[in-house]
Specification:
N Utilization Substance Protein A, Chain:P, domain 4, 4-stranded mixed sheet, 5-stranded antiparallel sheet, alpha+beta, OB fold (Dihydrolipoamide Acetyltransferase, E2P), about 425 residues, 4 domains
Length: about 425
Amino acid sequence: MNKEFIDALNVLAAERNLDKEELLTSIEEALEQAFERNVMPGKQIEVEVDSETGEIDVLVIRRVVEEIEDPDKEILLAEALELDEGVEVGMEMEFPVDPEKFTRIAVQTTKQVITQKLREKEREHVFEEYKDRAGDIMTAVVSRTDNKRNVFVDLGRGEAIMPPREQIQGERYMVGMRLKVYVAKVELSTRGPSILVSRAAPELLEYLMRQEIPEVADGTVELKAIAREAGQRAKVAVASTNPNVDPIGACIGHRGSRIQAVTAELQRERVDIIMWDPSPREFIRNALSPAKVGNIELDVDAGEARVNVGSDQLSLAIGKGGQNVRLAAKLSGFKIDLVATESISDLDAAMAAAASRQQDLGATAPTDSRRAAFDALFATPQAADAGPASEAADASAEAAPAGDAAKPDEPEETPEAR
């Protein structure tokens, strides 16, 4: 080795962002292995490389003993004293070796080991850089594909894989194409760092909505739940922390401009914005939109919901290939069982919603549930807040005969008037 080798090593370390001292240590270990395997098998070799000049020192290490068991690694005390009067039993002695003893096989082996060490160091650095990036959105460039439909993308320092299940259905990936991906998982395997990225994750849709919708970015509109079937359809449940802000309108934007900017990044994936509701029944009802559904029976412990749907709304509730009900189930976290019933009018659906809300709030239901639903639907705040005074007025009104209503005082007739 010489000064030119050290200069090349400096360039390599700078280009690959590797530590020069770590590289030198790896090279020394590689040379030791090459010597022990191919030049001086059985010997304990130590190699030192000067980081400035590139000079290489190869040393054979032998331990001083009183009785030899391994002549390749040990030396008798009497023999050692002839070389150095200050040695004692247990000490190690170094014997220099001419580096010219390297054979062609040893040089080739050294080159292979050095290459392997460089790859290992680079993989370690890549893993250290990306191990904390799991859960982030990054911009990647498509580098290649394989016959298993896996797509490999370049993240800058490392390469990630996007298997078919994490791709947007119908999206074509061309080499050199730039796209946003969600870093799902980063692991270190025997082959190096394994980075899994996704275009189908709900987190990607959430990120895009935060980028395009200011109310979502500042927290005025909260994204409560997201369910996706990438490339086809998604449902997003939203709620507003400001009563003056319509969360659905804020997400859609003027003439759909905001939501269109989001779907443009997702191959025009259809995104339904629905209102989140703290009541599980109402949330399921909203999640099944645009279908209008009737009564909903919940089994919270089992996580199941039985939903009555009019025959004219059943196909709409199910959706194409079961997509609508499937997304609603993912969004709400309940297993939804649709039960076909007679047609449900808008008034019936509204009454069912009012009754279910009253039940969720823990109100005591009268004997006639449909009457209770009707009263809950059309009750006014004034009527609900009526107190004892109004009850007393009603009682007095009932006590007074219909013909004895109070009349204004009339003057008595006087004789003159007669």
